[in-house]
Design goal:
This protein has helices spanning 17-23, 31-36, 99-108, 121-141, 165-171, 191-204, 209-213, 217-229, 238-244, 256-268, 270-275, 289-301, 324-327, 361-374, 417-438, and strands at residues 2-7, 11-13, 42-45, 62-65, 68-71, 74-80, 83-88, 148-156, 179-187, 282-288, 318-319, 336-337, 341-343, 346-350, 378-385, 391-395, 402-409. The chain is an alpha/beta fold. The protein has three domains: 2-144 and 189-290, no CATH class; 148-187, no CATH class; 305-438, no CATH class.
């Protein structure tokens, strides 16, 4: 296995001809196209590739020019054949753990872990998958426990289905008053809930597994539902259960179970995820840095009373027109505004990209539009920096308000993850205090 380590928004020279041949199979191809093909072992976040404004589905994992690979906002692990790329956040220091990526994932997926030691890339892949499991489980169980028709064999006097003649002769000769028959019934105890149960038991056996599964009361309730639904669980059946789940479940009433099933399969078949045994199949787990940064900031700015609209669910948007009947004259997508964060007199747009050299015209016009429609005096951009945080303030023409370019410092001097969490908590408090000082409302 050849491992290439790089960071987001960077360039790296590749010298190995074998690696270059493998990388050509994923370079300059949109993630949406990779996901639409048969690459079952490739997980991408956000799950809806068009959910975020930066449209991760239209992004490339890497671009390849001559012997040089360039990365964008995509982070995570991806491999093909015997070549694997570890794309860390640009705030990771040399060979040290990528504390920033771990920290954002834990905040976004509500996992509290404080013991991250230096691990190999392959071990980190499994770590990331384990972090995601409670989130996927909760989404799925919100649709109810998965039910499926199961075939049951009976041998009693209360016949309720077709008689199984061969089994009846075998079991009831000479006749003793019972009949062998089969029934087909809806059951919670099926191949998919068994897969979830096996995944739960697998995670429990991992060093940090019990912490992940006992993170909060909701996770405990979710696990209790699966345990209650799978009374026939037997650890020795794990291989059989995995084989029964090789085909993806697609059910209109249980749509969230498709992603959960895929995650469980990747956790339980971690060897195939780590080593990519299928030729030319892409495997790994990828995160859109812009999406992850925005979702992380949502957990920080909540304490400062900022709202975080959800465009996909049409929640939290702001009306663009006073009268509802006017909306019919315009395109449906233009009727509501969905700033990343807003409250009272303040609009914030989250940007993971570098803003040291300026803001794109389209981004600037978007925030100014939000400010105008909401009569907000303050608007700005919030992005991560690896140096001392700094805010630049600019007065808009005609007393149009203040535009802020806010850099939040991402720590990288920590000696342990516990230390890192403490330093980041301080930076988060500094950020919310600074924003409150800008707009005391």
């Amino acid at each position: 296995m050849s491992q290439i380590v790089t960071t987001d928004n960077s360039n790296k020279q590749i010298d190995s001809e074998s690696d270059l041949l493998n990388l050509q199979k994923i370079a300059d191809i949109k993630i949406g196209n990779l996901k639409s093909s048969d690459n079952r072992n490739l997980l991408v976040f956000p799950r809806d590739l068009n959910q975020h404004g930066d449209r991760i589905g239209d992004s490339n994992i890497i671009t390849l020019r001559d012997n040089n690979i360039a990365t964008g906002n995509i982070m995570g692990f991806v491999g093909i054949n015997d070549t694997q790329i570890d794309i860390r956040s640009r705030f990771a220091q040399d060979d040290a753990d990528d504390y920033f990526l771990h920290y954002m994932l834990q905040r976004v997926f509500a996992i509290n872990l404080f013991d991250i030691k230096h691990t190999t890339t392959r071990e980190q892949i499994i770590d990331f998958l384990l972090y995601l499991f409670p989130h996927f489980l909760r989404k799925a169980l919100a649709q109810g426990v998965f039910k499926k028709y199961q075939r049951f064999e009976h041998n009693d006097a209360n016949v309720r289905g077709p008689i199984d003649v061969a089994r009846h002769i075998r079991m009831n000769t000479p006749f003793r008053g019972t009949v062998a028959y089969t029934t087909r019934e809806h059951s919670y105890d099926n191949h998919l809930t068994q897969l979830i149960r096996h995944t739960i038991e697998y995670i429990k056996a991992k060093p940090r597994g019990r912490v992940i599964l006992s993170n909060d009361s909701e996770v405990k309730k979710d696990i209790a539902q699966i345990v209650a639904a799978t009374p026939t669980y037997n650890v020795r059946d794990r291989s059989k259960i995995v084989n029964l789940n090789l085909r993806s479940v697609n059910h209109p009433y249980y749509s969230a179970y498709t992603g959960l099933q895929r995650l469980c399969m990747q956790i339980l078949r971690h060897e195939s995820l780590k080593y990519g045994q299928e030729n030319d199949k892409i495997y790994g787990i990828l995160f859109d840095g812009a999406w992850l940064w925005e979702e992380y900031l949502a957990t920080v700015l909540e304490s400062a009373d900022f709202k975080h609209p959800q465009n996909k669910e049409s929640k939290g948007g702001i009306k663009m027109f006073d009268k509802p009947e006017v909306e019919d004259l315009f395109d449906r997508n233009s009727r509501r505004l969905y700033p990343d964060f807003w409250k009272n007199d303040f609009i914030i747009d989250a940007k993971y990209k570098h803003l040291e050299k300026g803001v794109r015209r389209e981004d600037l016009y978007q925030v100014v539009t939000y400010m105008h429609c909401m009569k907000a005096r303050h608007g700005g951009f919030l992005y991560p920096v690896d140096h001392q945080e700094k805010t630049n303030n600019y007065q808009l023409a005609n007393d149009g308000g203040l535009m802020h370019i806010i850099g939040m410092k991402v720590q990288h001097d920590a000696t342990s993850f516990v230390d890192y969490v403490s330093l980041m908590k301080t930076e988060e408090q500094n950020l919310t205090n600074e924003i409150k000082d800008m707009n005391p409302q």
